[in-house]
Every structure is written in C-alpha cells, then in structure tokens.
Specification:
five-stranded mixed sheet, 10 strands, D-Maltodextrin-Binding Protein, domain 2, elongated, alpha/beta
Length: about 260
C-alpha cells in the first residue's frame, strides 16, 4: 500500500468513526454560524443625517445586523405602518403618530422611549436681509413660505401652532407652500422657491445656503419630541430592541448632539 492509499484509508476510517459517534464532519466557525439579521427603521426625515452616521458605529459591534432606513414625514410613515408596510422600528418627530400606533396595539410593550428633542426655527436664504422676526412674514416682499403639510408633517403642525400663537396665521396662510417633509421645506428655501421656511434647527444646521432668523419660543408649540418604539410586526424583535437601546447610549448621543438634537 503506497502513501496516498494509506492517507485515503486513514481519512475514510476517521470519517466513519465520527459519523458512528454522531459528530459532524465539519464544525462551522462561530462567525459562519452567526446568521445575518436585517432591520428596517422608519424614521422622520429630520433624523436622516444623524441616523446615517450612527449606523456604521453600531455595526462595528454588530457586523451581522444589516440596517436600512425609510425616511419620510412622520404621518406618512405612520399610515404605512398601519397599512401593513414592513418595518421593525418607528422614530417619529412627534408623539401624536406614535400615540396612534400605541392605541392600535402596534407597538411592542415596554419599548417606547424618547430619543431626542428639537427646536423650530424660521429660515431665509443666506443673502436675504431685513427679516428679523416671525412678524416679518406678513411683509409684502415675502409671498412664499415653505412649511410641512400639517396633516402629516409634525414640523408643519408646530409651525401652525407658532403662527397662531403670534396672531399672524390668518395674515400669512395664503403664502404657504406645503411640502411633504421638513427637508423639502429646507430645499425650497435653499433653491429660492420660497423666501422663508419653518424647519428644525437640525435641518438648518446642515445647510450653508440659508440662515436662521429666529427660533420659536417653546411655549408657542407642543414639545418637539422624537419618540421611538419597536413594532409588533417586526420579525426580529430582539435585534430591534438592541438597536433602540443603542440609540439611547452615549455613543449615539454624541452624534445626535453634533447635529443639533437636544438629548438628556
């Protein structure tokens, strides 16, 4: 029997012994045995930049978790979830939308938490002068004001509240250019398609084409809070819970603060 035949005989013998005692011929490594998990996060458009930056930080320790985002107006995302659209986590720019899902029993109990707060600001194109307050919106030189559609965009709801509190809503409502989310309001002012707009301070912070005129007093609108929760429709509830918990830790808070969000 030559050397090759001896090796073949030994290999067959060892394999037979392993099978006889019930051991697998190949033991998968822990890395290969670890299954990949996909999470879809439906989040308010104003969270886009911060969440995109948080994603790779989280995946440094959770390489097997694939995170995808669906950004949009909170009200539109709420409707999508109610109609059965797939999502694991919902992050809204207002409590109204999460309240509605909670009342319908669509949240995993005990997973709701407030991620951050924000501020509403009046913005104009960078080169515009002479506008110093909300009251200037009544001026004849301003004929287009970009705000989110109040029925679906929390920023639009807050904007309406502020303008009504200041007593100028009826004087300026004919100037409104309604948009589908707060980032579109920012884009309208950046492009000059609107002479002014109401957005979050976090949106204003990412643009060098606009300037902030003034921030709305918090007493003039409902608290701007970002609640988040895991959805019952999630197929990966445990992984979703872990990501929600991560969003509340110190690493995520550093990123949120960088983009202007208010975190405790």
């Amino acid at each position: 029997m030559n050397r090759r035949q001896i090796f073949a005989f030994v290999a067959v013998t060892v394999a037979s012994l392993l099978l006889a005692i019930g051991l697998p011929l190949v033991t998968p490594s822990p890395l290969l045995a670890q299954s990949n998990t996909s999470l879809l996060v439906s989040a308010a458009a104003s969270m886009k930049d911060a969440l995109e930056e948080i994603k790779p930080i989280y995946q440094q320790g959770k390489a097997n978790v694939n995170i995808s985002y669906n950004f949009g107006a909170s009200g539109a995302l709420q409707q999508q979830i109610e109609q059965g659209a797939p999502a694991d986590i919902f992050i809204s720019a207002g409590k109204k939308q999460v309240d509605a899902l909670e009342q319908k029993g669509l949240l995993v109990p005990g997973t709701r938490a407030n991620l951050a707060n924000n501020r509403l600001v009046l913005i104009v194109p960078k080169d515009v002068v002479g506008i110093t307050s909300f009251y200037n919106l009544t001026d004849t030189k301003i004929n287009k004001i970009a705000i989110g559609e109040p029925r679906s965009v929390p920023a639009g709801q807050y904007a309406e509240q502020v303008l009504k509190k200041l007593g100028i809503f009826d004087k300026v409502k004919s100037k409104f250019v309604f948009v589908n989310n707060v980032r579109q309001a920012l884009a309208a002012v950046e492009s000059g398609n609107a002479q002014a707009g109401l957005v979050y301070v976090t949106d204003a912070k990412i643009s060098n084409k606009i300037k902030v005129v003034v921030a709305a007093d918090d007493k003039f609108h409902s608290p701007i809070v970002y609640p988040m929760a895991v959805l019952k429709s999630s197929k990966n509830v445990d992984a979703a819970k872990e990501f929600v918990q991560f969003l509340s830790n110190s690493q995520a808070k550093v990123v949120l603060k960088k983009y202007g969000f208010i975190v405790s």
